[in-house]
Amino acid sequence: MIELDYTLRTVALGAAVLGLSSGSLGAFAVLRGQSLLGDAISHAALPGVALAFLLTASKAPLVLVVGAGLAGWVGTLCVSAIVERSRVPYDAALGIVLSVFFGLGMVLLTYIQAQPDASQAGLDTFLFGQAAALVGRDVVTMAVLGAVALVAMLVFWKEFKILLFDPDFAASQGFPVRALDVGLTTLLVVAIVIGLQTVGVVLMSALIVAPAAAARQWTDRLWGVVALAGLFGALSGAAGALLSSATARIPTGPTIVLVATAVVGVSLLLAPGRGLVAAWALGIRNRRVLRVAGTLEDLYTLALAHEDVHYPHPAATLQTMTARPEAVGPTLDRLQKQGLVEPRDDAWALTPRGLAEARRLARTRADEHDPAHLGVEVEGPTP
Amino acid sequence: MTPQLEIQLIASVTAAACALVGAFLVLRKTALLSDAISHAILPGIVLAFFHTENLNSPLLLVAAAVTGVLTVGAIEALGRTRLVKQDAAIALVFPALFSIGVVLISRYASGVHLDIDAVLLGDPAFSWIQRFEVGGWDLGPQSLWLMGTVLVLVAAFVGLFYKELKISTFDAALAGALGLAPAAVHYALMTLVSVVAVGAFDVVGSILVVGLMIAPPAAAWLLTDRLPVLLGLSVALGVASAVSGYWMARLFDVSIAGAMAVMAGVLFALCFAFAPHRGLVAQARRRARQRVAFAERMLLVHLLHHEHTPEADRECRVSHLQEHLHWAPALASRAVRAAERGGAVRRSGDRLALTDDGRTAAQRAMVG
After folding, report:
1. Could you read off the pLDDT of A262-277 as tens digits, one per residue?
2. Within a 13 Å sphere around the CA of A325, how many CA atoms are in the beta-carbon half?
3. What backbone torsions phi and psi does residue A307 show, to the nearest 5 degrees?
């Protein structure tokens, strides 16, 4: 029981560390429009794992992670070389690197398997990840690498920020844009290799993108996005690890990814301001305000045709003047509550306040459409 | 037929189908939708498999096609909210769907012939074992029939809708204006990508499908500007990757699917380096030629400048050029040789003199 708790704690801690680093560093990648670079890097890391093992005959986490990192890094260099030196577009270059490197990884893994003296056992956990296999020393490696990457991110915060928002300006100010770009990509590589053993090359890219996409909905500030993405990542990692251990036969990597996806879903729906629910509510309110103003103006237009600006008109007349006749009734009720119209002889009339409001609306509209704001006084029609 | 030949045939047919749909993905700059689709169809395949318990059932193709189209629809809907960028939308949708597929497999399908390794990695080595038999007659491997049908389907689609595909690929706005329904073409293409992906995952796995869809067409695009040639070259490069990959795998006793992807990468790298006009070598040679041509013009202008001046004797010496024009010796001698060959310069000892032609060329260089 104590053993189990220890294992569980190790796994959850490892997943949280991985979520923290991939979330916060992934934020930069996502904001730079490089969401799919993570996918390519994580697949490209596989042959590095196999080569590191072939060359050193060691399965120490640091050795394999360094191999993965170098291969992932070479992968990004290949992507930029292809994009800069040919007309092959960015996404095709990512796809080529992704699957060719992965294919090379498969070739090397099967080659290792065929060697009589070497067992590849443990290496293929990098394919799908195997959180349950994490031990204390893996988590220590992950934490140390993650801490180094995060500290580097904070040290170069200003430079990365200016690279992110205005690379041309950064270059004109003498910032080494190219080196910063490589540096930021290197940190992304580090964040990815940290997670390979836990969620595997196939799903790692989700942990780069999902926390950042979720965090982006809640704030417009860079430090806010990075911090929230780190928090979301850590929570998804820990929660996913705990969930998968609590349920029989549910692998950890996919569970973490699904938790992170759920966080994205909630953020897309509920984030104030940007969220879909907020946008939907705003749309309804805007339409209602427009309808209220429209009905008021229609009533005013009708009233102008009479000696008495408070002359009542039936709702049916108003209904002929709008695209949504069924909304006229509720809108009139709303206007009555606001004291802008009043019922009189089965019809509706503007109150004095309603008349003032309608004139104000008409003037505003005239200002919008006419050259009135150029100094020409627009006289509202007077009774 | 020997299994060896059958495996190569299956792999070739698969690679050809992948390359044919992939060419349009690459040209439309939607290459990574192949990555998204090939992963995201997993839950569809798993559910259809639970229903039929047969990995070669046509229902799997249908389920995959539906799931693939839904995936593309979901990615586009997510992108349209403008809350995330298009590439982030891809990276959000397919891992989630893939995860659902993996969870379904690990929870409900342990012990049957559908494990994650098979889906992801595939293995042509076993693709010939399941036979297609009618009335006791062995008509060949099931995979060959399946992928052959898929290839015919893809080829028929490309043939029938060639004009629509071509116009909507290169000018979607024009296609819309002509009433060619680019959206319908887009979704039809994505349906085909899904069908090819599910047909191929048994053979090469979902990740290497991406390579066979993207690398051969991308390589072909470096070789030609003409669509029919590009389609042909894509298929040829795909088949070449399959066959050479098979033999590489035999030679080193490694994964055939992996070796096919590696060979697709090698062929792409060769085209990237050596393609006429667009390859790295051609680019470098063109740049070197332009550098020498420019240096030659500079030389002529320099000589013209100092012609009949008191210091001409000193300025018009080859040894002096390096110092005066800051040229590396190699560039200086190449420029001089180019000028001599073109008859613009005469050389006596170390002293250079413009010919009439050279004088005209120098004057023209200064004006234009």
Report:
1. 999 999 999 988 889 9
2. 8
3. -60, -35
The whole-number pLDDT of residue A379 equals: 46
Instruction: Confirm whether A195 is domain-assigned.
Output: yes
Mean pLDDT across chain A, nearest whole number? Answer: 87
Taking the CA of residue A66 and the nearest CA in chain B, the distance in Å comes to: 22
Q: What whole-number percentage of chain A has pLDDT above 70?
A: 93
Cβ neighbors of A55 (< 8 A, separation 6 or more) are A67
CA-to-CA distance for A268 and A274, rounded, in angstroms? 8
CB contact under 8 A, B222 and A87: yes
**What domain count does chain A have?**
2
pLDDT band for position A383 (cuts 50, 70, 90): very low
Q: Which residue, A41, A198, A210, is CA-closest to A128?
A: A198
Q: How far is A117 from chain B (nearest CA, A)?
A: 16
Confidence of residue B119 (pLDDT cuts 50, 70, 90): low
Question: In Å, what is the CA distance from B99 to each residue of A72, A81, A173, A262?
Answer: 23, 32, 45, 12
Percent of chain B whose predicted confidence (pLDDT) is above 90? 48
Q: Which residues of A are less than 8 Å from B120 in CB distance? A: 127-128, 202
A127 part of contact set with chain B, CB < 8 Å? yes
Residues of chain A positioned with their CB less than 8 A from the CB of B213: 95
Find the CATH number of the domain harbouring A293. 1.10.10.10
> Looking at the structure, do residues A237 and A314 belong to the same domain, yes or no?
no
* Secondary structure class of B137 (helix, strand, coil): strand
pLDDT value at position B314? 75
pTM above 0.90? Answer: no
Please tell me if residue A274 touches chain B, with a CB cutoff of 8 Å. yes
More confident residue, A215 or B344: A215
What average pLDDT does the segment B80-89 reach?
Answer: 91
User: Does residue A269 belong to the interface with chain B, where contact is any CB pair within 8 Å?
Assistant: no
Which residues in chain A are contacts of B31 at CB distance < 8 A? Answer: 89, 91-92, 94-95
Which residues constitute the domain of residue A170? 6-252
Mutation target vs A (from B14, B214, B230; most A CBs, 10 A cutoff): B214
Fold of the domain spanning B3-278: ABC transporter involved in vitamin B12 uptake, BtuC (1.10.3470)
A177 and A292 in a common domain: no
The domain made up of B282-367 is a member of CATH 1.10.10.10: yes
B 155-174: CB under 8 A from A: none
Q: Which of A217, A235, A252 is the last residue of a domain?
A: A252
Same domain, A175 and A316: no
Residues of chain A contacting residue B234, judged by C-beta atoms under 8 Å apart: none
